[in-house]
Write a structure and sequence with these properties.
globular, 4 helices, two-stranded antiparallel sheet, mainly beta, 32% strand, binds zinc ion, Glucose Permease (Domain IIA)
């Protein structure tokens, strides 16, 4: 999928990668499992320290930390959005101060883009992953196991949407200041 450029409220950024086949990038990686790896979200490359806000109203559904910076997510948040879908933000700073169940208003800042040393060892970026309720049902009691990749033809791929439809809808939705 080609990368596109866009202009947020205060900074330039570029993004891409929804349902991109990244199998070749992971080949021979220590965690590689020998299967195809399709990227389930969209990556927004922005400087570390960039505030991230929720583009639609919702509530905090799951919070995960990566204290040794080894899991690959850094700070990770999942929100249940009004309307029933779920939005995951990964590779954030880990000083998350939100509470489970906390209601979040549209446009409210929920996290900060993390540095490599705290975001799971990646270049500074936001991984946004938009999932339907079936995706979450399949991970009940194991939300920590939700990954940003899945094999081709997996249930995960059938249960995600391109987050661009809410993050950059040209009018109200935005996630990156
Ligand atoms: Zn990603």
């Amino acid at each position: 999928m080609a990368r596109q450029s866009g202009r947020a409220k205060r900074i330039d950024y570029f993004y891409g990668g929804f349902l991109e086949d990244r199998t070749y990038l992971w080949r021979n990686h220590p965690t590689e499992k020998g299967e195809s790896l399709i990227h389930l979200g969209t990556d927004y490359t922005v400087p570390f320290g960039t505030p991230v806000c929720l583009p639609k109203p919702g509530e905090v559904y799951h919070i995960m930390f990566d204290p040794e910076n080894k899991i690959g997510w850094g700070g990770r948040l999942i929100f249940k959005l009004e309307g029933g879908n779920y939005l995951l933000f990964g590779h954030l700073k880990q000083d998350i101060k939100l509470q489970l169940g906390q209601p979040i208003k549209e446009g409210e800042i929920v996290g900060i883009i993390g540095e490599t040393t705290e975001n799971g060892n990646w270049w500074p970026h936001l991984h946004a992953q938009l999932m339907n309720s079936q995706f979450m049902v399949n991970y009940v009691n194991k939300f920590n196991n939700i990954d940003g990749y899945a094999p081709a033809n997996s249930d995960e791929i059938r249960n995600v949407f391109n987050p661009e439809i809410i993050i950059n809808d040209g009018s109200r939705g935005y996630a990156i200041y």
